Amino acid sequence: RNMSSAGPEGRKKMRECDGLIDSLVYYIQGAIADHEPNDKATENCVCILHNLSYQLEIELPESYAQSIYMQRRNISSNDKTPGCFGTRSRKVKEKQQDTPLPEEKSNPRGVESLWHSTLIRIYLSLIAKSTRNYTQEASLGALQNLTAGTGPMPFAVARTVVQKANGLPSIRTMLHVSHPTVKKTAVSLLRNLSRNTSLQSDIAREVLPDLVLILPESVPGSDIVCETTASICYTLYNLTQSNSHNARLLLSADGLPKIITISMNDSNVFSKASRAASVLLYSLWSHTDLHSAYKK
C-alpha cells in the first residue's frame, strides 16, 4: 500500500507485476462473497488499486492506449470529425461521449482489470456494504480517478457507474456520512460524472436535491468543507448549465439562497467556494425563462 503511492515509476512497476492486480481483485471478491467487506486486508487491497488507478489514462502503456483509441476511431470513422483527440471543441467532446468503448474482455488480466466493469461493480459494492471509512474513500477515489480524463475510457467508466451498474444510490448515501473526506471524495466523483452530457438527466434526478441539501448555510469554515462546497457548486454548474429543467429543480430545492450566501464572502481565506458559487449564479442567470422565478 505504501509502495503504490511512491509516484509514477512505482505505479508503472506495480501495474506490470505479473498477477499482482489479479490477486488483489481476487482477494476483494472473496471478502465480499464471504460478507467480510470490513477487514483490514480488503482496505489495503482497495487502497492499492485506488493508487494504481491514479492518472491511469495518461500512464497507460502505448499498446493499450493505441488499442483503445484506434478501435474507437474505427467505430467512429463515419463521423467525419477532424482529429478526435487534438481538438477541445464541444462538438467533438459530445461525439467522444456518445461513442462507446469496444466490447470489454470477458476475462481481463492485469492492468486491463483496473477499468473493467467487474472492478467498477466491486467498488460500488464496497461503497454500499463496507463501514470502514478508508475502504469507502478508496473505492470512491478509484472511481474518481477512472472518470477524471476526457478520453473514451473515463466516459465509458462513467456510463457503467451511472447506467449499467446503477451506482448513484450508493454514491448518494456517501453524501450524508459524517466523515468529511469520504463526503468530499463522493462529491468529486459526482463532479467527474456530471461532465458527461448523456448522464446529466439521471444524475440530476438522483442526487441534485441531495447536493443542495448538503450545501452549507453560510461560508464554510474549514479547508476541506470549502473544497467540498466548491465541488458541489461546480457539479451543479455542470448539471444546470445547458438544462433549464435542472436549473428549475435546483430552484425548487431551495438552493438559490444558499448559493447567494456562499458567493457573497469577501474574505480571501476561503474564496474557492465563493468563486464557484459565483460562477454557478452567473450560469443560472443565463436561463432567461427562469428570471421571474429567480426574482420571486
Written description of the protein model:
This protein has 296 residues and is mostly helical. The chain folds into 2 domains: 1-63 and 107-176; 196-295. The protein is 66% helix and 0% strand. It is built from 17 helices and no strands. The model is unreliable at 72-100 (pLDDT under 50).
Ends distance: 54 Å
Proportion of helical residues? 55-70%
Structural class per helix/strand content? Answer: mainly alpha
Global outline: elongated
Total count of strands: 0
Assembly type of the chains comes to single chain
Largest sheet: none
What average pLDDT do the residues reach?
A: 86
Please tell me how large the radius of gyration is.
20 Å
Order of helices and strands: HHHHHHHHHHHHHHHHH
| Parts with pLDDT < 50 across at least 5 consecutive residues | 72-100
Bin the strand percentage.
under 5%
List descriptors.
296 residues; mainly alpha; 17 helices; 66% helix; PKP2 protein; repeat; ARM-type_fold; Plakophilin/d_Catenin; cell junction
Short description:
The chain has 296 residues and is mostly helical.
Summarize the helices and strands and which ones pair or pack.
Layout (H helix, E strand, L loop, with lengths): L7 H9 L3 H14 L6 H13 L3 H4 L2 H14 L14 H9 L18 H13 L3 H14 L5 H13 L3 H7 L5 H14 L6 H15 L8 H18 L3 H9 L2 H9 L7 H15 L5 H5 L1
Helix pairs in contact: 2-3, 2-7, 3-8, 7-8, 7-10, 8-11, 11-13, 12-13, 13-16, 15-16
Family: Belongs to the beta-catenin family.
Keywords: Cell adhesion, Cell junction, Repeat
Protein name: PKP2 protein
